[in-house]
């Protein structure tokens, strides 16, 4: 698992500086709830996850909901601090809740609902709030999905990864791909939106394998598909296998071909990209699912997009609950201690679980705005509110157009929208725009 970043030591109270309140009235507030438990740890995964057998005390699955709710209470106190209020921090209801992991649905559905109830009681939810949980296909049944839907969840994101058993085995995934139609059907019966996550570039995965996974995903008719290129992290089991020569390192050209195939298959099936790795189903005649506007900016609707993830890419505010969770409020970013036992102990002592934080300066915030905004289909405004290309970027923008990396019409109006080739080389576009 990756080490936590360096940063300044946060106060034990978790208090935020007054600068975090600046402009807060114009930003959404979301909540991320991290559930750090998995039945087994997949060989490619470097997330902050644990098997329940590794843990005890206030850190295990049985007591986790109570522990997480302690941080919800602490967060409410921090955001309601009179010093922040005096600096302009408004009381805000929660726009999106995302329960991730790990495998959140290893906890009883009643525990997930109880955590959501804690968020709802503490802050309130905006009308139509998006509430998502991740789930493995083998960790839900009709009863648990019914409990989640009745408790206020609106969306479930299934970790499909692949439809090919040999690829799943290489990834150490334990679910039966034949179960996906059942779990999607159960979720649909409860009125839940459905997303499926796919991974391409697994060692040994052929283009035919990847096509089979895409076709299987499309056949499920989900509302949303995420397609992520496998990244082999050095501290993982798979990283060690690659280092020892037991598995080949994923190839960049192979990954590019597979991304292009994903674009082809998903577009033909009625999905459109709204972020480089994410595709949402287009509903004909639905407001917000319209095609591109006169300025060439794609507008295929955030209706089925992950609004929670969009809040990250658009620099909104969110509080991350759980061990290792990261948060961001008004240019202040912090991260919690990683181990569940340490996390639980600090909260039991009435202390913030934050391990470190940083206050982003203007240059860093602008760099992140470019890095994240470039990845979105509605594009990046180079000089927000002006409709123009800043003089110092005109040469770079002209070069990017010439290389076929960004669309011509939006660029004339000061907005960077990636072409398909640009999506494959998004990092190069960011480098060109941040000299």
UniProtKB/TrEMBL annotation:
Family: Belongs to the anaerobic coproporphyrinogen-III oxidase family. HemW subfamily.
Name of the protein this chain belongs to: Heme chaperone HemW
Gene3D superfamilies: 3.30.750.200
GO biological process, one term: porphyrin-containing compound biosynthetic process
Species this protein is from: Georgenia yuyongxinii
GO cellular component, one term: cytoplasm
GO molecular function: 4 iron, 4 sulfur cluster binding; coproporphyrinogen oxidase activity
InterPro entries (UniProt xref): Coproporphyrinogen-III_oxidase, Elp3/MiaA/NifB-like_rSAM, HemW-like, rSAM, rSAM_sf
Coiled-coil zones: none
Domain (Radical SAM core): residue spans on this chain: 23-272
Region of interest called Disordered, as start-end residue ranges on this chain: 1-20, 284-305
Domain of life: Bacteria
Any Pfam family: Radical_SAM
PROSITE patterns: RADICAL_SAM
């Amino acid at each position: 698992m990756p080490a936590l970043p360096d940063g300044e030591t946060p106060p034990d109270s978790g208090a935020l500086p007054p600068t975090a309140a600046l402009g807060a009235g114009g930003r959404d507030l979301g909540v991320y709830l991290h559930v750090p438990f998995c039945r087994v740890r997949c060989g490619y995964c470097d997330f902050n996850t644990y098997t329940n057998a590794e843990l005890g005390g206030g850190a295990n699955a049985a007591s986790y909901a109570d522990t997480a709710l302690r941080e919800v209470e602490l967060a409410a106190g921090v955001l309601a601090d009179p010093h922040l209020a005096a600096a302009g921090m408004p009381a805000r209801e929660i726009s999106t809740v995302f329960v991730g992991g790990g495998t959140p649905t290893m906890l009883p559905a009643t525990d997930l609902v109880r955590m959501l109830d804690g968020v709802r009681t503490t802050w309130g939810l905006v009308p139509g709030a998006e509430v998502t949980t991740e789930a493995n296909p083998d960790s839900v049944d009709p009863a648990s999905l019914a409990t989640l839907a009745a408790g206020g969840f609106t969306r479930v994101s299934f970790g499909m990864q692949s439809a090919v058993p040999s690829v799943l085995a290489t990834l150490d995934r334990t679910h039966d791909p034949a179960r996906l139609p059942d779990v999607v059907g159960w979720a649909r019966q409860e009125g839940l939106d459905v997303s499926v996550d796919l991974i391409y570039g697994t060692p040994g995965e052929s283009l035919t394998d990847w096509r089979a996974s895409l076709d299987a995903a499309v056949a499920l008719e989900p509302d949303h598909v995420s397609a992520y290129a496998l990244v082999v992290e050095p501290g993982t089991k798979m990283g060690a296998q690659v280092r020892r020569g037991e598995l080949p390192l994923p190839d960049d050209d192979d990954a590019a071909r597979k991304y292009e195939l994903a674009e082809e298959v998903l577009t033909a099936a009625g999905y459109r990209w709204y972020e480089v790795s994410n595709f949402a189903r287009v509903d004909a005649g639905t407001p917000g699912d319209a095609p591109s506007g006169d300025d060439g900016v794609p507008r295929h609707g955030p209706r089925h997009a992950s609004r929670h993830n969009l809040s990250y890419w658009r620099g909104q505010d969110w509080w991350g609950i759980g061990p290792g969770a990261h948060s961001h409020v008004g240019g202040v970013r912090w991260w919690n201690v990683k181990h569940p036992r340490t996390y639980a102990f600090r909260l039991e002592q009435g202390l913030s679980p934050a391990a470190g934080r940083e206050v982003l300066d203007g240059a860093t915030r602008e760099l992140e705005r470019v890095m994240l905004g470039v990845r979105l289909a509605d594009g990046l405004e180079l000089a927000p509110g002006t409709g123009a290309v800043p003089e110092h970027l005109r040469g770079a923008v002209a070069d990017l157009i010439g290389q076929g990396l960004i669309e011509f019409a939006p660029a004339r109006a000061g907005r960077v929208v990636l072409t398909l080739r640009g999506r494959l080389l998004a990092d190069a576009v960011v480098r060109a725009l941040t000299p």
